[in-house]
Amino acid sequence: MGLALTAVLAAGCGAAATLPDSAATRRIEGGTITYAHYQEPPCLWGGWVQQAYLSRQVFDSLVSYDHGEIRPWLATAWKQSADRKAVTFTLRRDVRFTDGTPLDADAVVDNVNFWLENLGWVDYSFLTGADAVDEYTVTLHTSEPNPEIFNELANGHFGIQSPTALREHTAEQNCLTPVGTGPWIVGQWKRGEGIDFVRNDDYNSAPANARHQGPAYAERLEWKFVPDATTRWGSLLTGQADTVYDIPSSQWATANRDYQVLNYVATGRPQALTFNTAQGPFTDRRLRQAFTHAVDRVKIAGAVFKGSVPFEGNGSLSKTTPGYLPVDDALPYDPAAADRLLDAAGWTERDSAGYRMRDGKVLEARLPYGLGSIITPDGSTAVQIVQDQVRRVGIKLDLIPLTPTQQFGGAHAKQHEKEISFGYWVWPSPSILYITYKAGTAAAPNGNNTAFFDNPEVEAKILDAQREPEPAERTRKYAELQVWFQNEAVAVGLYNYTYNLTVADNLKDVWQDSGNGLPVFSDAYFVEPS
User: Fold this and answer.
1) Where in the chain is the domain with CATH 3.40.190.10?
2) What are the pLDDT digits (tens) for 358-396?
3) Percent of the chain surpassing pLDDT 70
4) Helix, strand or coil for residue 481?
């Protein structure tokens, strides 16, 4: 079910405050913020960015990432060891979880252990454990130096949960109604409809970069799951929602004219076309390069998203990720170059449909993609245009849309089941290269390595960059790696994973954190004309 068009919720049902916020408006006390989101995850907490959006409402983190600066949150101070493999945090002494459990060093240790047991990718933060130094001092340990450990810990996946709830509640309870110290408490999750959050009236632990300290201004937050972008847009127009996610790209200009618009490019890697380098035709670099030259990626991003989502040529890092290097011009749109590369690779024959052949075999590639989970309907339009453009140089591209159940069940994920992958990975560090290009083993495969890339020499260079103590030299090493991956066309970017919010004019101070673009509603308040 989507947002019920008949259930109009009051967006400012409290009394007006006596203190005006400006000459034109007055703050309204209380009220209910209604937000229309796109995707409904299986749990409120977990490793998917869709879960981090929700986790941010309920959990606080040790620190906050603020446009490159680390700000205090549950931790008031921190220091890193000489070998850069340990960070010691000093905690606030006045914070309690909403079940009454005090926040202390043991609570943080319990959470680190929980992450290590339940987050499959936590190893990529290089965390190995934690020790309580005293009641309010805790040390986190890593297997490698990790300069981005702070902004990683700031994201919603590493929110701090009540150790009492983790220990005493069932897995289902901690999935649906986890307990944090944050500004909102889960009231009820109505599957297929939304989650009702109620204000934590005792909230006293906002991050240092929050717009205010203390409990949320609004009394309730109603988070609706509305899969259709047109319905989300309509709910904003009719006043049934106060803020909505990802409106139709055709309405982008209107939204910028008539509403407040927040636009955040996620860290990590963009929506990228990743080639199977271990099996099939794209083991040949010339074919990967030819495919890329055949696609007018800049024009596709502009035509499909109309400015709401930017083009990104770098297939390995998005532009908000530390250490990012623009490499847009490495493999530009050039169908003639694509034809030359395909000819040189021996794909000179043609079948009756015009597809290239070699030794009687058609040049064909399968591209499965998660429609409705990883890829939006606009993203699906983009890959359909890719399909048409590569056909013009003789490449047959088979698009295989996957349902969310298929996507997260691992359909078409194995090496022999696809030639191209399409998707993003949110991560606030250039170590995303290690996440997406680490080879893994037969016993412990790396499912994030959709290129099935296996080059020990390059992998060693990624780790060398990770370990580099000098910031400028570290940036140089990561830049060299990005150029190499782009020239090799292991993965090429198409557009950035972008979190867009359109907000009604009578709702002020909604903001997005600068680590994952997570929406923050605890500082938001309604206004009415004075």
Assistant:
1) 22-41+182-265+499-530, 60-177
2) 999 999 999 999 998 889 999 999 999 999 999 999 999
3) 95
4) helix
pLDDT surpassing 60 at residue 3? no
* CB of 73 closer than 8 Å to CB of 208: yes
Q: What sign results for the dihedral spanned by CA atoms 137, 518, 262, 379?
A: positive
DSSP annotation of 15 reads: P
Distance CA(427)–CA(270), nearest Å, equals 10
Strand partners, 64: 71
- Residue located via tokens 């409809």: 193
Of 22-26, 59-63, 450-454, the range with the lowest mean pLDDT is 22-26
22-41+182-265+499-530 classified as CATH 3.40.190.10 = yes
- Fold type of domain 60-177: D-Maltodextrin-Binding Protein; domain 2 (3.40.190)
Across the range 84-108, mean pLDDT stands at 98
- pLDDT for 27-56, tens place per residue? 999 999 999 999 999 999 998 989 999 999
pTM: 0.89
User: Mean pLDDT for the chain?
Assistant: 93
What angle, 0 to 180 degrees and rounded to 10, lies between the N-to-C axes of helices 297-305 and 377-391?
Answer: 150
* Residue 124, pLDDT score: 86
d(CA 426, CA 445): 20
Residue 250 token pair: 């055709």
Q: Would you give the DSSP letter of residue 256?
A: H
Calculate ∠ Cα 214-218-222, nearest 5°. Answer: 125
CATH topology of domain 269-496: Dipeptide-binding Protein; domain 3 (3.10.105)
User: For the CA atoms of the chain, what is the radius of gyration?
Assistant: 24
Instruction: Give, rounded to a whole angstrom, the gap between the first and last alpha carbons of the chain.
Output: 38
**272 burial via Cβ count (<10 Å: 0-12, 13-18, 19+):** buried
pLDDT tops 50 at residue 22: no
- The amino acid at 347: W
Spatial separation of the C-alpha atoms in residues 29 and 337, rounded to whole Å? 62
